[in-house]
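Long-time lurker, first post.

We've been arguing in lab meeting about whether magnesium ion would sit comfortably in this protein at all. Half the group thinks yes, half thinks no, and nobody has a model to point at. So I'm putting the question to the forum: if I give you the sequence and the SMILES, can you give me back a predicted structure of the complex? Inputs are below. Any interpretation is welcome too.
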Amino acid sequence: MAVRHHDILPLGQRPPLLRLNHVDKVFNGDVIALRDMNLQVNQGDFISLLGPSGCGKSTALRIISDLMHPTRGKVEWEGGQGQGDLGVVFQEPTLMPWATVAQNVWLPFRLQGKSYGEVKDDVLEVLRLVGLEKFLNAYPRELSGGMKMRVSIARAIVTNPRLILMDEPFAALDEITRHKLNNDLLTLRSKIGCTVIFVTHSVFESVFLSDRIVVMAARPGRVLSEVTVDAPYPRDEAFRTSAEYAGHARRASEALREAMGEHA
Amino acid sequence: MSLADDRSLALAGTRDEDEIRRARAARIERLAKWALPVVIMGLAILGWAWIVTANEIPHYILPGPDRVWDSLVNDWGMLIEAAYLTGWITLAALVMAVVGGAGLAILFNQSKMLELSFYPYAVILQVTPVVSIAPLIFIYVDSKIAGMLLCAWLVAFFPVLSSTTLGLNSVDHNLRDLFRIYGATRWQRLRYLQLPSALPYFLGGLKIAGGLSLIGAVVAELVAGTGGIGSGLAFRIQEAGYRLNIARMFAALALVAAMGVFIFAALSVLSHLLLRKWHESALRKEG
Ligand SMILES: Nc1ncnc2c1ncn2[C@@H]1O[C@H](COP(=O)(O)OP(=O)(O)O)[C@@H](O)[C@H]1O
Ligand SMILES: [Mg+2]
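Top reply:
Settle the argument with this. Predicted structure of the protein with magnesium ion, as tokens:
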């Protein structure tokens, strides 16, 4: 059993994991994609970045994953960052079409120089966790959109990362598949206790999934407010139709409306 | 399906008119794909024979198909030896074009400075017609074989170079980001990401290079003439022309064409085998 389980402590008792300190990002000298973003991510958080398109959500993730440097400010990992500390899921499944499902999930390990034999058990285990253990040797083109996304998630969790970044992962899927994947994502999180930053522009998705919603605004991209969703996990279909859910959704919508300002 | 009601049972196994019509059309097309070209070929040969006999055209102007066939049979030993030489040059040039073209593409991909320095010269070599370079080559290169290989290589390497370059640069940008996030080394990125991404492009270039290396070999033979190394098909065509042995010209020409077709077919099969598991181009189209 190489995929560890972490306990998720209640909000307020979670040890810090990562901090964005006064992060600014300017493109071409005039597009302020992020202005003074401060965010502390704690172990076990499920954070949604919620905001209209162009408010710098993807930019924030790219800075956290070190794909780009902030213009000013910095990202600090508690105890430094090591290889395999980060898992990512993009809006597209981003699988290698020439490789089988198992080979795709092996990739993060392979890039660490580990042979398939060494990590086979981990690969099988995460594929079981996302319900695709029967598709080990399938090629991506044989899978549906939702299944490809599951492979992408399996790949993101296989190294036991301290943090998983997801950039609108389900935005391109149909609503039924999206609901299913949202449910399964929460089940997965309760099993392995991962920390997630999840980008979305859907209020409902963010309320259902997360315990912290960071609401962002555009021009300049910035954090406007944070909404806490203190509904307990596990959350299921019943939660989706509860008054509690509706209440949280209303608060998040209001915060978002404020974020949109007169641009809405 | 667990819908075992009467209506579902009655529907199971039925095909409606649309499907039957489509299946029939597909079957006819599959057959026609082979049959029609063969019929056309047969008609052309019959027409050719008829024109020659009806107009009593002398065989040293236009031989009938029967004479071409006779030549093919009688001169088979000589022709097959010639085909062997031409085929050997073509194949060697193609292998060198693959090594050189793909190798250069990888080098250029790894070093922008190298690419900026040398790519323009690769283009210049490509756009200068090989027929005009060939005589010069045979002045400076003593070995006929080496000269012919060089000629054939010159025409064949560029499509491999340019298509592989394109392929190496056509990596999905999300996958590229993913590799960066996972701390892939340059070598890992090349091996696990760029080379597989470039494969379909490379194979496209290879198909073109296959045809071009045959053209290069033929041009080289015509320029080089013969000299101790035996004679290829192109040289045999030229020689038969001087002797007004038109039938042999046609016979040798048929062999050159057959070689071209064979190379193309072989490379298509290779491409299909390598891509069939995953690439869109290898999928059977539906509907
Ligand atoms: N590489 C880039 N070069 C220039 N401008 C960019 C670049 N990336 C993002 N931007 C701009 O920065 C802003 C924020 O973009 P992004 O982070 O992608 O927003 P979101 O993901 O919230 O939709 C947008 O106005 C976008 O046009
Ligand atoms: Mg985005």
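For your lab meeting: Chain B has a mean pLDDT of 91. Chain B touches chain A at residues 172, 174-175, 177-184, 188, 192-193, 196, 199, 277-280, 283 (CB under 8 Å). Whichever side wins, do check it experimentally.
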